[in-house]
Amino acid sequence: MTDVAVAVAAARAAAEVLLELRGGGLTGRELGDAGDAAAQEAIAAVLRRERPDDAVFSEEAADDPRRLAADRVWIVDPLDGTREYGEPGRVDWAVHVALWAAGGLGAAAVALPGLDEELVTDPAPALPGTVTARPRIAVSRSRPPAVATAAARAVGGELVPLGSAGYKVTAVVRGEVDAYVHAGGQYQWDSAAPVAVALAAGLHASRLDGSPLRYNAPDPWLPDLLVCRPELAADLLAAVR
């Protein structure tokens, strides 16, 4: 199997168990906790079978410091958007599986089980249409950053609250929104796979100061993030710096 095929197989395995659990009797936090555990095991089983020698860096597993010396590291978020997953009817949650190799992101898959969709790095998604007359900027449902308001003002846009980080990035890829502005911190697994897909599709992805996003770093914290249509990048970066 190619690395992309492995990423897809792992993401699909997690998506299947998450949908099965969601159709049972669990709800809310109990459903979210069960989903986190089941999706982690589903992904780990695929990686153990297909890439037993690779390191794994996952939200739902203990951090193994050996990843820092490894040539290949799978960065995984088995269930991105646990809260949204626990709310009946919401689709804005995701499964992330990305390979970090040779110092950067490579093969990746993002499953959107609520939409029955998968986005991968190869073949990369084709960006739909053009920027809307009033650009739409995805932000957190619970804590939209002040810089997002400045960004929206700079491009004459509007804020669109959405769920998980991965869903917000893929919303840019899919044309649901034109940009995603985040400040206040995330972890590397929150964005690795969706950023890999976004970059493959030709989108801009960086820190808010314009510097590159770094993955498989010793500290898993990633303070901020901008993903947007390339034609908006200069104006948005000027607004949020």
From TrEMBL:
GO terms of molecular function: 3'(2'),5'-bisphosphate nucleotidase activity; metal ion binding
SUPFAM superfamilies on file: Carbohydrate phosphatase
UniProtKB keywords: Magnesium, Metal-binding
Any one biological process term the GO annotation gives: 3'-phosphoadenosine 5'-phosphosulfate metabolic process
UniProt cross-references to InterPro entries, sorted A to Z: CysQ/Inositol_MonoPase (IPR050725), Inositol_monophosphatase-like (IPR000760)
Residues noted as binding Mg(2+) in the record, renumbered to the chain: 59, 77, 79-80, 190
Cofactors (names): Mg(2+)
The protein, known as: 3'(2'),5'-bisphosphate nucleotidase
